[in-house]
Write a structure and sequence with these properties.
By secondary structure, this protein is of the alpha+beta class. It is 32% helix and 25% strand. The strands form five sheets. An eight-stranded antiparallel β-sheet has the order 16-13-15-14-18-19-17-20. A five-stranded antiparallel β-sheet has the order 6-7-11-9-10. Helix 10 packs antiparallel against helix 11.
């Protein structure tokens, strides 16, 4: 994703730009020197991870920082179950680091291509009514602030509530310390269910299972539910073999979804009929494996995505409003994803202060752009009527005026930013919009 001929493009194809320069620091001191030089000349510096954000949060008008030179383990505290990683370490690299230690990350999202710095900076999360997003697992960070000063922020430092999910506005993360848990296995139960029953029973299912999510197929009454139960680490793996799961998830699910989405993109009127066929084809399966192998899924089909966090109790009503909207105006091939998270106290977490439900809507990357934008705008109107908070790395149109209304600690975060980056060395157009110019 890093420029060869000068242009950088994100995974979803929603953002492209040409930075003035690209650096790949190999040491923290080297990075700090670059930030100091940028501050002295009034320039800007911006790190970019794996490019999995749909928003322009990582756009670097000045110097783009490639974090691939800062990867791997920086420290281990087995007694406290803490592991410090260089910020450019990818999520998919972490299980191999933790497994020999008998440890695991407490929760993960369904994509693991991101860097740990990018994941926590944008609020990446998984699902589970008793578990928070990845940023809630952070018990310390190191970053280079806007003066080029290297700061170590520990678990008792009040600034961690800002830095653990900082949007890249406070500095360039160089190290992240994870509070891990003992390794564990997960039993996954997947299967079809009626949409109304799933909507109505959302709160009960969230309370019943450690990790619960579902996908609703628009224009149908069909859903695919995923109910995960945590088990001891020595629980034997069972169910479909890795090869069988690869065939089901990659060859059948991803490629079939991609082919059908491509057809629907060219002939939108057939989308409802196609979704009926896909919904009826969903079948049940149960399998057990190491936690990360259950949490993470392959995503081979490119799409555009918007996701909003709302109060968990509002999920059924909001889903019905979205269903009514789609039936009136839109032809949507992609399933709608619904997840949950526990309340936390991070300043800019989408789950701060409330038990949260997440509703994610997608459009195939080749769908008509104007039609996709209209769909996202229409869904967004429903979300903001319920005090929704958009995922920082996914499409939205909200600005600082709105965020001050829905984030109780918004001005507190701005005060931290003022101390960490008084000259706005890490500013870009996205941060000027969401935090204020």
């Amino acid at each position: 994703m890093f420029p060869v001929t000068g242009t950088w493009t994100n995974w979803g194809g929603t953002v492209s730009y040409t930075p003035a320069a690209v650096i790949t620091p190999r040491t923290v001191d080297e990075l700090a020197d670059e930030v100091r030089r940028a501050a002295e000349r009034g320039g800007t510096v911006k790190p970019v991870g794996a490019g999995h954000s749909f928003t322009p949060i990582a756009v670097a008008p000045g110097v783009q920082v490639n974090l691939s030179g800062l990867r791997g383990v920086r420290g281990v505290d087995v007694d406290r179950k803490r592991v410090t990683l260089a910020a450019g370490t990818h999520l998919h690299e972490i299980p191999a680091i933790l497994e020999p230690l008998g440890l695991a990350m407490e929760n993960l999202g369904d994509i693991d291509r991101q860097t740990i710095a990018g994941a926590v900076s944008t609020g990446t999360h998984g699902t589970g009514g008793r578990f928070g997003g990845i940023s809630t697992q952070i018990c310390g960070v190191q970053l280079v602030d806007g003066t080029g000063t290297i700061r170590d922020i520990g678990p008792d430092d009040p600034d961690l509530k800002a830095a653990a999910l900082g949007l890249g506005a406070l500095g360039v993360l160089t190290e992240v310390t994870l509070q891990c848990v003992d390794a564990f296995a997960v039993r996954a139960a997947e299967g079809p269910a009626d949409a109304d029953e799933v909507f109505d029973g959302f709160a009960d299912r969230v309370a019943e299972f450690d990790h619960y999510e579902f996908y609703w197929f628009p224009h149908t009454s069909r859903t695919l539910t995923k109910s995960n139960t945590r088990l001891p680490a020595d629980t034997p793996a069972d169910g479909p073999s890795p090869l069988r799961r690869y065939i089901d998830d990659e060859l059948l699910a991803n490629r079939t979804l991609g082919a059908l989405s491509a057809v629907g993109s060219r002939i939108p009127r057939i989308v409802p009929a196609v979704n009926q066929v896909v919904g009826r084809a969903v079948s049940a399966r149960t399998y057990t494996d190491r936690s990360d192998k259950i949490f993470v899924s392959d995503r081979g089909v490119r799409f555009r995505e918007m996701e909003y966090a709302i109060g968990a109790a509002d999920v059924p009503d909001v889903l019905r409003q979205i269903r009514s909207l789609i039936d009136r105006k839109h032809r949507i091939s992609f399933p709608i994803e619904v997840r949950t998270a526990a309340a936390d106290d991070l300043m800019l977490s989408t789950a701060t202060g409330r038990a949260t439900g997440y509703i994610a809507v997608h459009r195939f990357h080749r769908d008509d752009l104007a039609s996709s934008q209209e769909y996202f705008r229409d869904v967004e109107e429903i979300m903001i009527a319920h005090g929704g908070r958009p995922h920082w790395g996914k499409l939205h149109t909200r600005d600082a005026v709105y965020f001050r209304e829905v984030y109780p600690r918004f001005d507190e975060f701005l005060a931290v930013r003022e101390r960490f980056d008084p000259q706005r060395v890490f500013a870009n157009p996205y941060l000027e919009a969401v935090l204020g110019a």
